[in-house]
Design a protein that fits this description.
Blueprint (H helix, E strand, L loop, with lengths): L1 E3 L12 E3 L1 H10 L2 H10 L7 H10 L15
Antiparallel strand pairs: 1-2
Helix pairs in contact: 1-3
Length: 74
């Protein structure tokens, strides 16, 4: 598991949550630091993003040790 800052450290975030590496790669590929801050402040879930929602649905049935290359988003 990776430690992930929902609000990036560069934007003053201190709290971390545990996320699977493939999930972290998907977040990093689809959101800028500014977008993560806006979403966190508004309480908007990352799964409101269509690409992330499709990813979550796809990865849900994969084993915990699954890993695959992440396509660039943004």
């Amino acid at each position: 598991m990776d430690r992930f800052h929902p609000i990036p450290k560069s934007r003053g975030g201190r709290d971390t949550v545990a996320v699977h590496p493939i999930c972290r790669e998907t977040i990093d590929a689809n959101f800028t630091a500014s977008e993560l801050v806006r979403r966190a402040e508004a309480g908007t879930p990352l799964t409101d993003n269509e690409v992330v929602a499709r990813f979550v649905k796809w990865v849900a049935n994969k084993p915990a040790d699954f890993h695959s290359a992440t396509k660039a988003g943004r």
